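Many introductory courses stop at the sequence. We go one step further.
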Amino acid sequence: MEAPHNSPAAETVPEPAGATVPDALGAVPEAVTVTLTVTSPEQMQDLGRRLARVLAPGDLVMLTGELGAGKTTLTRGLGEGLGVRGAVTSPTFVIARVHPSLVQGPALVHVDAYRLGGGLDEMEDLDLDVSLPESVVVVEWGDGKVEELAEDRLRVLIDRATGDTDDERREVTLVGIGARWAGLREDLA
């Protein structure tokens, strides 16, 4: 199957002046950026499966994008790639779902922080800090809310055409923050 992207563009972003990370992501120290083009939901799910190969217990993945951008589709692919139990669906109404591993790997904790207005204090009841060391924690709408959970984290920005369009193309920008993600481009190759 063909890779779900054009050739990835990666760069290392030095601390902080003149950083080339997209404005929506902000300048971050020690960040590696990879931008991919995805043209269908199947390719988005395949990207999730590919990302799952590089994820490990303790990884925090933050997803950002418009409603319908593909955050849950990407997470569904992550769940398949991690070999977890249960259908990965949007946790909007339950806030968080835990999908245990069926293959002795990390559990997938899938959180939708859309309805949570505050920062990490409001999310304390979810015990994400307790789950993180042995799980992969994926937080939709987590910007400004969960950064304090992990110094090293993966931010995923999914940008799609808006308005009345049936364009399935998405620009996916992966920003690996911290030393853990220094080899992100190579890991996805």
